[in-house]
Amino acid sequence: MDTLLNDICYALRWMARSPGFSAVAILSLGLGVGVNTAMFSLVDSLLFRPLPVTEPSSLVDVFTTGGDGDEYATSSYADFQDIKAQNTVFPDMMGYSPMMAPLSLGDRSRIALGQVVTSNHFTMLGVQPFLGRLLVPADDDGSAARVVVISHRMWKREFGADLAMVGKSLTLRGLPHTITGVVPLLAPELWLPVTHVEEVEPAGITDSVPSPIGKTRLERRGMRWMFIRVRLAIGARPERVMAMVMRQGFAIVAIGLLVGGLLAAAVAFALQGVLYGVRPLDPLAWALAFGAIALAAGLANFVPARRAMRIDPMTALRTD
To answer: Which of 260, 279, 259, 283 is closest to 271 using CA atoms?
Structure first.
């Protein structure tokens, strides 16, 4: 301990003799550590940290073919409703579209970045509210009250993390919207029911393909403005795939052991009257036989189970 204190004192005296050099060295090290730490935190948040939703790898966007031949075109709201009604493949699907609208917060105003979404947006993502409630199916009704869900970042930055903010209102394009909840997401800033899209972001009628009926973007099939996102039902976590294959293999083994055990017992009872010393229910013989068979079955099941665990379901579909 004394040696350490002496070394520290010597270092401080040496730094005092060369204050300019010491200041430059300390400042350089401080800036280097600070900048690198900040950059690592940013990269970790954007690239490496998983999205705060349930199984993000099973979420994919579905595109339709546009009138100009674009193979990755957005869809109309009417098309989304038809696709969702006829869906028999995906567990769930939702519609969403980015939006910008003037936001008024008392004595200040700015442009807010958000999304108009169908009411199942958060439930499909598996996001739970931090405060209040999420959007519900009743919010999709065109006659429903105007509501909005805000992000955790917006709640802290614009409303000072007010725990009583749920039930209060904010103004978008001159219209009041009641805040129903706060979600633990960073972006976008807010989410509104898709049925109020014309109020917060009115658009002229510009059809990508001819639309003989409808007056708004919610009605006209030619207005392709909505993104469709689905959750894949195929695939499972590797450990679940392996467990499933192992269970299937052992189910066959169990039936085989039951049938084999009954046959072995019948033969042993028959031999009991012919051969001296034959015991039909010899515990050691049965334990060794069943143990050896179970071990062999486990090893035999492990190879296909491990192989199935490594198969990418999307690759398998493309191959088929």
So the answer is: 279
